[in-house]
């Protein structure tokens, strides 16, 4: 998912830099490439931020997979938790990103020789095979959350809470939107996790059915928070390198800005998904077809 999304992003970025259309809002006499239009920037940043978050989360899962291979039980529990999240969120992301790539191309996105539509077609199968993403959501809710009464999920949430305390140490106004958005999203995910665990308790009325109906928004909420945590860690690493005068300054500042965009445009969706997971089961279960 990450790889085809990245290729689609690079393709769309190149096109947006080359395609001239419209004028500058501040200077009507000057024609501009579409990459200078605010909405095209927003779409490109959406692609970029989603890719960076999912790539980092994939690497995080791979790290724990290596640790688990050495007999680390805690790492194995983390791999088990992250696997359905990485698969489902990464592949759903690739469909969204490649569709946005077509949008940036405009009508040219449907012209085969541009290649934009091919990325979308390549991505569209990804949420289907290797276990549909609906099955991945059921796996997260039942086998990875209810199996241990939420212990592995709560351990992960505790790490994100500790990450918030680390963000507080940065004392940077530019980081505040990320800190606030991640805090709010973490609270939403914590509540949704408690709801899932509660519905899985013996005696809960229609508990299994409720969890099944709510598993997809629960997974989406979890994935957004996990992505937000990875973006926060990238910000802290970038800030440290900037303070020590290491690395490429433009690249590091771009990392921080991309994380800010994730915080204000993408991460808040976690709160809506949490609400859907806790309040939305009955409308699904009572539907007649």
From TrEMBL:
Name of the protein this chain belongs to: Uncharacterized protein
Keyword Chaperone: no
Domain Acetyl-CoA dehydrogenase-like C-terminal per the UniProt entry, residue ranges: 165-287
Needed cofactors: FAD
Keyword Cell cycle attributed: no
Alphabetical keyword list: Flavoprotein, Oxidoreductase
Species this chain originates from: Cyprideis torosa
InterPro entries: Acyl-CoA_dh-like_C_dom, AcylCo_DH-like_C, AcylCo_DH/oxidase_C, Diverse_Acyl-CoA_DH
GO molecular function, one term: oxidoreductase activity, acting on the CH-CH group of donors
Pfam families, per the entry: Acyl-CoA_dh_1, Acyl-CoA_dh_C
Domain Acyl-CoA dehydrogenase/oxidase C-terminal as annotated: residue spans: 3-141
PANTHER family: ACYL-COA DEHYDROGENASE (PTHR42803), BROAD-SPECIFICITY LINEAR ACYL-COA DEHYDROGENASE FADE5 (PTHR42803:SF1)
Lineage: Eukaryota, Metazoa, Ecdysozoa, Arthropoda, Crustacea
């Amino acid at each position: 998912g990450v790889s085809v999304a990245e290729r689609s992003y690079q393709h769309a970025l190149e096109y947006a830099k080359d395609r001239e259309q419209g004028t500058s809002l501040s200077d009507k006499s000057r024609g501009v490439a579409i990459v200078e239009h605010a909405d095209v920037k927003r779409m490109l940043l959406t692609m970029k931020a989603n890719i960076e978050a999912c790539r980092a989360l994939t690497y995080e899962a791979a790290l724990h997979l290596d640790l688990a291979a050495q007999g680390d039980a805690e790492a194995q529990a983390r791999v088990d938790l992250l696997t359905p999240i990485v698969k489902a969120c990464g592949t759903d992301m690739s469909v969204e990103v490649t569709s946005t790539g077509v949008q940036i191309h405009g009508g040219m996105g449907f012209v085969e020789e541009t290649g934009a539509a091919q990325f979308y077609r390549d991505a569209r199968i990804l949420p289907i095979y290797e276990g549909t993403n609906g099955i991945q959501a059921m796996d997260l809710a039942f086998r990875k959350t209810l199996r241990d009464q939420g212990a592995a999920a709560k351990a992960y949430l505790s790490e994100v809470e500790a990450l918030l305390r680390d963000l507080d140490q940065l004392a940077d106004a530019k980081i505040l939107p990320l800190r606030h958005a991640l805090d709010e999203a973490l609270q939403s995910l914590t509540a949704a996790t408690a709801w899932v665990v509660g519905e899985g308790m013996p005696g809960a009325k229609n508990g299994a059915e409720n969890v099944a109906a709510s598993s997809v928004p629960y997974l989406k909420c979890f994935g957004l928070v996990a992505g937000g945590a990875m973006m926060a860690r990238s910000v802290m690493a970038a800030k440290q390198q900037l303070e020590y005068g290491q690395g490429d300054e433009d690249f590091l500042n771009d990392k921080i800005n991309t994380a800010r965009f994730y915080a204000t445009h993408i991460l808040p969706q976690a709160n809506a998904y949490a609400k859907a997971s806790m309040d939305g089961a009955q409308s699904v279960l009572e539907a007649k077809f």
